[in-house]
Sequence to fold (286 residues):
Amino acid sequence: MADPLPEHVTTPLLTLITARSMDEDYAHVAQKRAAAGDVRPQVARPHWSSLVAVAALGVMAAVVAVQTDREAPANELSRAALVEQIESRSDEVRALQGDVAELNRSNAALASSSTRNQGKLDDMEARQRRAELVTGFSVAHGPGVQITVDNSADGEVDGEVLDEDLATLVDGLFAAGAEAVAVNDQRINALGGIRNTNRAIHVNGRPVNAPYEVSAIGDPRTLQARLVETSQGQQWFARVNRYEFVYDAQNVDDIRLPAAPERVLRDVIELDADPNSGPEREGSSP
Fold:
């Protein structure tokens, strides 16, 4: 159990000041009389300074009471004004909290809409890249197969690679899953083509010479195997065996193909015969 508080802590301040002042006065008077040889018991009388102190304290207490009473209405008005300000600020805070909540909902809706729009944009960009890749109007790179094709080693005319031979190989590569194909760095697309002019092969209207480097971007793990399974691939390998073409294929980690040259679309006039067609190999299909 805690010890009781000292008397000077629990005694009212006014009482404590009065008591201590009187005690000091009594002690002062007793000392003077003892020094003079008067040891008679004296009746304790308050010193005049104690009376003055008590009177001063009383006056101060009265002034404080009067001042407090006068300031009471002003304090009450100040309190009412403060309460009113608090209530007003509380209303403002609640309104701001509502605005914040509404802004959060708007931000969430905008973020969701932005995500959907970004998804649509990414899809459009992917479709654009795919279209550019398929049409050949953009640079392409990736893993694939590098194929070297050359005329037969015996130098016979029938052993020369013709445009239709390369076209059959290219068609077989696309059928096997190739995404992009080029012959001697000439990108193959729908507006280009492989044609013989006399005995020279032209790709996209530009001459190319043997040996022919046929580059195909696609899955190197399956591209060569699927080529053999396509009808064009089977025709190609039949020609390789029949005319003893040089054929070598290697998987490559990264092949870079240029974009196909842009061409202006024109009206097509059908002709009975192609005056620029090259020699047709005996026994070859038209």
Notes: Residues 136-257 form a domain with the Alpha-Beta Plaits fold (CATH 3.30.70.1880). The chain has six helices and eight strands. The mean pLDDT is 78. The first strand starts at residue 140 and ends at 150.
